[in-house]
Design goal:
elongated
Length: 320
C-alpha cells in the first residue's frame, strides 16, 4: 500500500478532470488524477462528436478523451488507475482519499470530477443500439437526425426540453410517456402540447429497441400500461430522457447536495462549502451537461485551486 501526495488531487477523469489536470500541471502543482471506473467519462461511450470546438470534421468521443489524457500527462499529470472508495474532508487541507487498491491519496486541494451517468430503461436493444439510433442526449446527437423521425422517452423537464430541442432538426417528434400526464413544469408542458411538430403517446412503455437490416435502429416495441397491448413505432432515432444520476455517493454527508444528488457550489464558481474542495463538470451541472462546459469548469477549478494554495502559502509565511 502506497501513499501519494500532491498539491492537487483530482478524482474522476473526463473533460472536467483532464482539463483541471492540464491547467494544474502547467501551474507546477504536479496533479494526480485518479481515473475511476470509467476513465474518460461518458465520452468514451459516445461515437460521433461534432460540437466540441476546434475540429472541422466529426471526431470520436474515445479519441478525444485519449488526446486529453495524453495532453495532461505530457504537461506533468500523474494518472492513477484506481477508484476512490472513501474520502476525509473534515481534517483538511490536506484532504485524504483511499483507493480500492488500498493506496492513500493526499491532496492539498481536491477537485471532484466524478461526473454523472444517464439513467437507462434497461430493455433489450438499448445498449446494443447506442450510437446507432439510441442516445441519451438530444443536444449532443440531435443534429445527426436532421429531417428524420425521432422519439423521446420520458415525462419530466429533461424529456420535454429534449423534445422541444429536437424540433430544430426534425418535423416529426414523438414523446412517449408511461403515464397520462407529464411531470415537467407547466410552462414546458404548454410549449410541448402546443407545438405542431410534436405528438404524444400516453400510457406507453418501451419494451425493446429493434434494429433494421442495416443494423441501425428501425422501430420501438411499445406496451400500453393500461391494456397491456403491444404496438410498434418506426423511428430513426430514440432519445432516452429519464434523468441522470450524479456519482456523489462518496460525498453524502460530507458536502451539500441538491435533491438530485448534485454537488452544490458557490454560484458562478466551482467552490464547494469546504474551502479547498472544488467540483467541476456533470457532478455539479444538471443543466448543460456538455463536454465543453465540463472542460471549462475543470479549468476554473484548477485556477481557483491554485489561488487557494497561494493564499495558504501567504498565510503560512505571515505566521512565521
Amino acid at each position: 500500500m502506497a501513499t501519494h501526495h500532491t498539491k492537487m488531487l483530482i478524482i474522476g477523469s473526463g473533460p472536467a478532470g483532464y482539463s483541471a489536470a492540464i491547467y494544474a500541471a502547467r501551474a507546477m502543482l504536479e496533479p494526480i488524477v485518479v481515473q475511476g471506473l470509467q476513465p474518460g467519462g461518458q465520452l468514451t461511450i459516445t461515437t460521433d462528436v461534432e460540437n466540441y470546438p476546434g475540429f472541422e470534421e466529426v471526431i470520436q468521443g474515445p479519441w478525444l478523451m485519449e488526446q486529453m489524457q495524453k495532453q495532461a500527462e505530457h504537461v506533468g499529470t500523474r494518472m492513477m488507475w484506481d477508484t476512490i472508495v472513501s474520502v476525509d474532508l473534515d481534517s483538511g487541507p490536506p484532504f485524504r482519499a483511499i483507493g480500492d487498491s488500498g493506496d492513500e491519496y493526499i491532496g492539498d486541494t481536491l477537485v471532484i470530477c466524478t461526473g454523472a451517468q444517464a439513467k437507462w430503461l434497461g430493455v433489450p436493444g438499448e445498449q446494443e443500439l447506442g450510437g446507432k439510433g439510441v442516445s441519451a442526449c438530444a443536444t449532443c446527437d440531435g443534429f445527426f437526425y436532421r429531417g428524420k423521425k425521432v422519439a423521446v422517452i420520458g415525462g419530466g423537464n429533461t424529456a420535454v426540453e429534449e423534445a422541444l430541442y429536437l424540433t430544430n432538426h426534425s418535423d416529426d417528434v414523438t414523446l412517449i410517456h408511461r403515464r397520462d400526464e407529464l411531470r415537467a413544469e407547466k410552462i414546458l408542458q404548454d410549449r410541448l402540447l402546443k407545438h405542431p411538430k410534436i405528438s404524444t403517446l400516453w400510457n406507453k412503455t418501451v419494451e425493446s429497441f429493434e434494429a433494421g437490416e442495416d443494423g441501425a435502429l428501425h422501430h420501438l416495441v411499445l406496451k400500453d400500461t393500461q391494456t397491456g397491448e403491444t404496438s410498434t413505432l418506426e423511428v430513426d432515432g430514440a432519445f432516452v430522457a429519464i434523468g441522470h444520476a450524479p456519482a456523489t455517493e462518496l460525498f453524502k454527508g460530507k458536502l451539500p447536495m441538491d435533491d438530485g444528488g448534485y454537488l452544490l457550489t458557490e454560484p458562478g464558481t466551482p467552490k464547494t462549502a469546504v474551502p479547498g474542495v472544488f467540483a467541476a463538470g456533470d457532478v455539479t451541472d444538471h443543466v448543460y451537461r456538455q463536454a465543453v462546459t465540463a472542460a471549462g469548469m475543470g479549468c476554473m477549478a484548477a485556477l481557483d485551486g491554485e489561488r487557494f494554495l497561494a493564499t495558504l502559502e501567504e498565510a503560512r509565511e505571515a505566521a512565521e
